Amino acid sequence: MIGPNTTHVTLLERVANADDEAAWTEFCERYGPLIRSFARRRHVNAAEIDDIMQDVLMILTKSMPKFEYDPAKGKFRSYLKTLVIRAVYRKTFQKKTPVLLEDIEAAVDSTRDDPETEAIWEEEWRQHHVRQAMRIIAIEFNEQDQQAFEFYGVQGRSVQETADDLEINVDQVYKAKSRILKRLGELIRLQVDDEG
After folding, report:
1. Residue 3: its pLDDT value, please?
2. Confidence band of 127 (pLDDT split at 50, 70, 90)
């Protein structure tokens, strides 16, 4: 399996080799939550989300062997967004009969200027980066620091309550939050730079 430090470009190059199952596993781990969450926010029911994930993977399986990453031609995230939106609309339109490809393409085209769809994708993309960075945080920081960050920095518990619950002093809570926030920012910047 490819680790969380694998670069975006390296992963795409490996996914282009359809026989590299480890790369596909990492791709699903990395982008699956993004795809599922976006579909959920576009009101796709839980039973159909797996179908959307499979649709996206099927299209990628066919297109990746010919895919050459060239940031000058556009970002992978835009390509992935188009695939996901297309899969969501395809699933939505399947409830109607007959389904016309033109209807799906028109719906996809209409989302290019839809601020709601764009806002949802951007929010999910940011969350995607946070999730990826947190995978590395889980490796680099001890459990106590992670819990202090979770309780104080994420859940909003008071610093004293966090310190008491973890049986550490307040200064340790502040330091854990500060170090993890700093590293989180670094990791997200690296990811964004890596994606071009």
Report:
1. 47
2. very high
Q: What class does CATH assign to 1-118?
A: mainly alpha
pLDDT of residue 103: 63
Chain centre to alpha carbon of residue 101: 27
pLDDT average, residue stretch 5-32? 79
Name residue 189's amino acid: R
Which are the contacts of 96, defined by CB distance < 8 A and separation ≥ 6? none
CA distance 81 to 104: 15
Distance CA 63, CA 5 (A): 25
DSSP per-residue codes, 58-85: HHHHHHGGG----GGG--HHHHHHHHHH
pLDDT at position 86 over 80? yes
Residues in the chain: 196
Question: Looking at the predicted structure, is the pLDDT value of residue 67 above 50?
Answer: yes
Give the amino acid at 95: K
Name residue, tokens 């926030």. Answer: 181
Task: Kindly list the domain boundaries of the chain, sorted by start residue.
Answer: 1-118, 141-196
Is residue 136 within 8 Å of residue 30, measured between CB atoms? Answer: no
pTM over 0.85: no
Residue 116 parent element (H or E): helix 115-140
